[in-house]
Amino acid sequence: MNQRKTVYFDNNATTRVAPEVFDAMAPYLRDFYGNPSSAYRFGSQVGKDIEAAREKVAKMIGADPKEIIFTSCGTESNNAAIHSALVTQPKKKHVVTTAVEHSAIIKYCEFLRKHGYEITLLPVDADGQIDLHLLDKSIRPDTAIVSVMWANNETGIVFPIEEIAAICRMHDVLFHTDATQVPGKMPIDVNALDVDMLTLSAHKLHAPKGIGLLYVKKRTKFQPYVIGGHQERGNRGGTENVANMIAFGRAAELATAHLQDENTRVRALRDKLENGILKTIPHTVRTGPKEPRLPNTSNVAFDGCEAEAILMLLDQAGICASSGSACTTGSLDPSHVLVAMGIKPMRARGCIRFSLGIYNTEEEVDYVLQQLPPMIAKLREISPAKHGDSHRKHETHFAETTTRAKVA
Ligand code: PLP
Fold first, then answer.
1. CA quadruple 300, 301, 307, 309: dihedral positive or negative?
2. Is 327 a catalytic residue?
3. From ligand 1's centre to the CA of 92, what distance in Å?
């Protein structure tokens, strides 16, 4: 892979593995490869090391280690939480979630809908917030679970999870939150939040991809999603991903240590970048409110430009960012999150997400602020939106996709 200098402003997509994390996990790939379930010490010692890692991730979120189930990723944890709520309460066929969740919730709910379950997708307002009164009214006697993300991966907008948990508690309904984007950026205390289940994914906090966790509060009924061996106290089958579990433990310690840096230095870098863009490039707006927001995330609309074109030019300059949209090759669908916030499709198609992290520097921000204005000017000069026909064609396309997104 090309090792040229990269300015990585896509930390909500994934993060660099911290050198400390790499050092902690490497011996478990190279030397300590025993199966933790084995009777001999070469294996059983690895089992003990996994438990030490479990204690570390539990400590990061104020949980008891017994409340932690390691999974393969955030997607599995999200699927598993809803699956368990439905299987342990078979008479309840209704799930409440929001229109701005990650596809790991939305697509799983679409799957459930096809299999006879009822799904309520709560809308959001222009600030990306749900109406708590509507949430309260949406919970029914047959609601098995409410699942609301803590922080949005595309906009960084934060939901009032404690208040949402209190409403669920009042109705005696299970509450799960997808907190994948939160660790290292905001403190997490599962007891103060009073959630029943919570999802995390290690690759968002400087550990490798392929390891996540589901926190399941003590005495909450849980039905495994991956069924097989007795691993994870019978809560998830499959031989343990030992090295990644060790990595997750070390990354959890670092995330707690870096909380302050994310909320001061990284926040200042994010603000410098965002303010610089809004000040120097005309026809740009921040997507959503300034607060409550993750300290590292900025989503900006560049009117009259297409995000994919901006990303291509940024890439040529060695800058990694994201359109935050559901774009797949050949598809021009604008992001379901931005559409749900009532952002016009034409504007949504020009939104770029910059997500910073602990390894970013002020020089990198200055570099992006220097590179971006001429790129945008150039793209606006050649923008198809200047030409009536293609403009209208796009609008028609978006009118269709918007309707689709609303019924999804
Ligand atoms: N939930 C949110 C909010 C995310 O941002 C992501 C990853 O982008 C996921 C879930 C899925 O996590 P994973 O990639 O570990 O499956």
1. negative
2. yes
3. 27
